[in-house]
């Protein structure tokens, strides 16, 4: 079975692909839109599982990558 992180990434990918197919995401906005989708799914998953420490670690890594 895939890890939770792999499942989050897969769900994010599936959503962004649908947005691209329907013309809702352009190449210019892909990066920002994907990050938003991924962060939203990550927050939702970890809130529902109560895993706040893991959520904080993931979001910290995202902020490091943005710098």
Describe this structure in words.
- It comes from Candidatus Magnetoglobus multicellularis str. Araruama.
- This is Putative pheromone shutdown protein TraB.
- The N and C termini lie far apart (33 Å).
- This protein has 67 residues and is mainly α.
- The protein is elongated and about 35 Å long.
- The model has no long low-confidence stretch (mean pLDDT 83).
- The protein contains three helices and no strands.
- The protein has a domain of 45 residues.
Low-confidence stretches: none
Helix residue percentage: over 70%
Helix and strand succession? HHH
Give a count of the beta strands, DSSP E runs of length 2 or more: 0
Mean pLDDT: 83
Which radius of gyration do the C-alpha atoms yield?
Answer: 13 Å
| Secondary-structure-derived class | mainly alpha
Oligomer: single chain
- The share of residues in extended strands comes to under 5%
Number of helices: 3
Outline, from the CA principal axes?
Answer: elongated
Biggest sheet features: none
List keywords for this structure.
single chain, 67 residues, mainly alpha
Which SSEs are present, and which pair or pack?
Layout: H1 4-21, H2 30-49, H3 52-66
Region (Disordered): 48-67
Organism: Candidatus Magnetoglobus multicellularis str. Araruama
Protein name: Putative pheromone shutdown protein TraB
């Amino acid at each position: 079975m895939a890890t939770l992180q792999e499942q989050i990434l897969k769900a994010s990918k599936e959503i962004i692909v649908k947005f691209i197919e329907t013309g809702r995401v352009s190449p210019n906005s892909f990066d920002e839109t994907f990050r938003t989708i991924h962060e939203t799914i990550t927050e939702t998953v970890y809130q529902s599982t109560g895993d706040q420490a893991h959520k904080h670690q993931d979001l910290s890594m995202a902020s490091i990558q943005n710098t």
